[in-house]
Amino acid sequence: MNSTKESIVNIADDLIRRRGYNAFSYNDISKVLAVKNAAIHYHFPTKSDLGVAVIDLHIQKIDHFIKGVAPLSEPEKVEAFLNIYEQIQINKKVCLVGTLATDWDTIDDKIQQKLIVFVNIVGDWLTGVMEEGLKKGSLTFNGDPQTRAMLIITSIMAAAQMAKIMGPASFQSVKNAIINEVNRQ
Amino acid sequence: MNSTKESIVNIADDLIRRRGYNAFSYNDISKVLAVKNAAIHYHFPTKSDLGVAVIDLHIQKIDHFIKGVAPLSEPEKVEAFLNIYEQIQINKKVCLVGTLATDWDTIDDKIQQKLIVFVNIVGDWLTGVMEEGLKKGSLTFNGDPQTRAMLIITSIMAAAQMAKIMGPASFQSVKNAIINEVNRQ
DNA sequence: GTCTATATTCCGATAGAC
DNA sequence: GTCTATCGGAATATAGAC
Q: What distance in Å separates the CA atoms of residue A98 and residue A180, rounded to the nearest whole number?
């Protein structure tokens, strides 16, 4: 993959998570790159193609993350996962899943299907971490591992959204609460 | 307020929570009502004016909700609050706060300010319920009331978003987990 | 209060030159 | 691989008649 194509995907990712899928245009990208909007259509014929590529980028990144944290303990894995969202919040973005979920009825079927794949990767991994933590006793929590994983994902993703409205403090309190909730005595 | 104006706000509310703020147009509303887009501009000169009116409608509704549940116990209040989101999920919408948060950087300052007011009303009310429940012993939970309130709001709002991607079952498991978390033995 | 008509701008996308 | 030029359509918004 050449550098221009990669740059387009990265800028699109940034724009989608700052402004939403329906509020960014090929022109916005061509303003950032020194490239005309026709050049972007060469790499991604339709906006849906670009949307799918952005999710593919996130799948790559989460795969890399999962491999990277493999040696860590379960509590450390949870914290590392929450730190991804902390970075999102600090950069004043929201997570890809939330912003595409709120635009769900307007996005192409190909984007929808790819997003389902991405959410399953994240959900399955975190469910596995919860199962392992429960077995080893390194994590303590109420309910089954899958529900706890979903509860963590929903809380932290909405916390990043809430921070856009209420500021960073609201994010931090939710993040700390999530950690406390899986380390109960 | 006349009936046409009310209808416009109700349809806009529906469209915003189904398709997102930037994906609905005055034309979409005029298709549903038997009215031309110029007629909508008469009632709401700009799209931002309409956006503010939609949040005002939600402020009215939550005020009415708060008054209605006043006689109930704290656990019943929490459940009634979660049931609002269950209805949102069943109707395949998302909540107003989440969808406007993900479009935050693209919405007018007047809409942003009004949304802050709305979130504070909801947050203050639920914090009060948590405080009261803690004092009476009708609710049991970890952490301070304000954090718990924020945790409930973020979890349930993202659960409605997640249901768009993963289906209704994921919503129900999160809803039940939230209830269990404030009724721990 | 609602209409027709229109201005202006921007969008996603394509054709064809280089 | 990127360009110029342009198409067809849709968006927000306004002017002025009824």
A: 24
